[in-house]
Amino acid sequence: MKAATRNRRDRVRAMLADLKMPGALEAADDILAQADGGSVTAGEAIEKLLDAQIVLRNNRRLAAAMRSSRLPAVKTLAEFDFAFQPSIKREQIESLHELGFVERAENVVLLGPPGVGKTHLAISLAIAAAESGRRVYYGTLADLVESLMEAKTSGNLARRLKVLTHPAVLVVDEIGYLPVTQDGAILFFQLINARHERASTVLTSNKGFEDWGSVLGDEVMAAALIDRLLHHCHIVNIRGNSYRMRHHQDLLRAGRRDPDEDTHRSPAS
């Protein structure tokens, strides 16, 4: 390696270290070697360095979010199988992942039967928000109501509501799977009301809005809650088969064998 090339690499590495860009610093030698060899242009090399830094930053943000947000898993938009759920408008989902709804403090409600990918999409929105540096939090409706009830009993309701109001994106999963007491519904309404026009809430439900009154045990409370949610809201209706059922069916098919298959199979097969 020529002295001038080596000196330039050393200067670039020193500048990246001074700028506290460890992702770019780690990738610098390989990328600069590509540039020196002519396989990438100077502009492409700069883009690669910046991309390496962004990837590291996003990974760190995601790791921090996974520790604090109670997200149950990492599920991304890239992993979602749109071909299996043709009822979903892909352009709507991709637009939501640009996070304009978060900037405008709008809500997202994903409706559909069990297993169609509602939770996956809700989590992927939270993941996208976390990678952009926003605070996120996840909970099922039952878990969130239980935490609010415990906070009320211990005299810490105001503090708990403040904690749950702060995240830029709150995912409320599984509305409709378990009934909620009237007291729990009141507390949940307080939470949604506190977040109204301040932060975004992403909700999933296997029930249509007309059934939320029975879920929350109070038709009037449900109507008021829905009114808050739908004021600025994106609704995603999913009509399709269950991913989990498809997985079970694939396993069953894989486990079945024609009894004659072994009989007629040649020794070499």
How many strands appear in the DSSP assignment? 5
Largest sheet: 5 strands, parallel
What portion of residues is helical? Answer: 55-70%
The low-confidence parts are 247-253, 257-269
Report the radius of gyration as a whole number of Å: 25 Å
What's the end-to-end separation, in Å? 55 Å
Number of helices: 13
Considering the chains and any ligands shown, give keywords for the structure:
single chain; 269 residues; alpha/beta; five-stranded parallel β-sheet; 13 helices; 5 strands
In short:
The chain has helices at 3-18, 22-37, 42-68, 90-96, 100-103, 118-131, 141-153, 157-165, 182-195, 212-216, 219-231, 243-255, 259-264, and strands spanning 107-111, 136-140, 169-175, 200-205, 233-237. With 269 residues, the protein is α/β, with parallel strands linked by helices.
Polypeptide structure, described:
With 269 residues, the protein is of the alpha/beta class. The chain is built from 13 helices and 5 strands. It has helices at residues 3-18, 22-37, 42-68, 90-96, 100-103, 118-131, 141-153, 157-165, 182-195, 212-216, 219-231, 243-255, 259-264; strands spanning 107-111, 136-140, 169-175, 200-205, 233-237. Strands 2-3-4-1-5 form a 5-stranded parallel β-sheet. α9 links the parallel β3 (169-175) and β4 (200-205). The radius of gyration is 25 Å and the shape is elongated. It starts with a helix and ends in a 5-residue tail after the last helix.
Fold topology:
Elements: H1 3-18, H2 22-37, H3 42-68, H4 90-96, H5 100-103, E1 107-111, H6 118-131, E2 136-140, H7 141-153, H8 157-165, E3 169-175, H9 182-195, E4 200-205, H10 212-216, H11 219-231, E5 233-237, H12 243-255, H13 259-264
Parallel strand pairs: 1-4, 1-5, 2-3, 3-4
Helix pairs in contact: 1-2, 2-3, 7-8, 7-9, 8-9, 9-11
